[in-house]
Amino acid sequence: MWHNNILETIGNTPLVKLNKITKDIPATILAKIETTNPGNSIKDRMALKMIDDAEKSGALKPGGTIIEGTSGNTGMGLAMAAIIKGYKCIFTTTDKQSKEKVDALRAFGAEVIVCPTNVDPEDARSYYSVSSRLVRETPNSWKPNQYDNLSNSQAHYEQTGPEIWQQTEGKITHLVAGVGTGGTISGIAKYLKEQNPAIKVLGIDTYGSVFKKYKETGIFDKNEIYPYITEGIGEDFLPANVDFTLIDHFEKVTDKDAALMTREITLKEGIFAGNSSGSAIAGVLQMKHLFKEGDVVVVIFPDHGSRYVGKMFNEDWLRERGFLADEKLTARTIISKKEKQEIITIDCEKTILEAINTIKSLNISQIPVTQKGMVIGKITESDILDALLENPSLRSQPLKSIATVPFPFVDLNTGINKISSLINKENSAVLVEDDNGNIEIITQYDIINAISG
Length: 453
What we know:
The protein is an alpha/beta fold. 36% of the residues lie in helices and 17% in strands.
């Protein structure tokens, strides 16, 4: 039996028991693996539902353009459906989202506009505002507005909820899901609570989001809002799809715990899931006191790990944010193993001849070039040689006339692999600012010394 098009393969995703990562919890923990949807995420379900409903209402007309603000997964579902149904797509997203998500949207032929994260939703630069402006400016366009479009939660009421009920044979006692637009958790919760009102619905939130405090106090507190790294969950406003009456409890999870748990899921369960899955399982472990023997806990795994290989699955990215322990050599450990000496710099107004004399007297091969104490470039033996071979009279000229781009700066937590990749023919060293604000230089020799030491 075949499917007529890829959209017919959406849904009927597997439920998989977790064994190692939740071994200390007496309940049965089951992951709803939404990565088996054709767009590798749960958002395929609601994307198709929103389009179908818009076609029925006349809001989306033949040959139209779909314009939406998306963290990537909804865009993928919309783009996939648009190809089959004959629509164009323009998506706005934030600079917080992984490069893999943006590249995937473009692979499906969508135009993607990246907007700043750290602005209010009402700000003209926000990805919400930009998408709304584009709708006003683009003829025959439609904005799904996944946050307030109730077709979002309806998709999960009609599909995901019934699947979970059938797959657990009605034995589910707890639902755990990240809360972003709110469509997933609210739609599933509505269906499940209709079958059994005793089922507990636990929402995963992140620090920097307003949901938890609003649920517990009824207060929308702008002081709760600040930038965070975790993708796919949390918000700085209240989407219409978040039905707080259906969510019994919100559990906040840190960026660090979410990122590290994302990796652990793959390493311990062999499931390549995304960042919000890491948040959900970290939240489950934080809430383990709520679960007893005989309970059946279903955790939504919304998307695929391939969208996070440059972030949560990249050790240098984790180290730069202080999320990963110093298991490998970093800039910090390399400079700690160096013999203490003050870095030599030279002012850009000094002459080339003065630079030659400095290099000779100190027996060094490169010097950072400064202007008013700030590093603005570099000079190497080969730079000087090339310049003088071309024009010997340049000796009296200021260094700024031949200085090249400065050595790259790295963070103290940057790993050795990243540092090594930055040292090449153009850059014989990297610079790092230590804990006291002093500039240190790291060369290939320093790396070799740290490894052998």
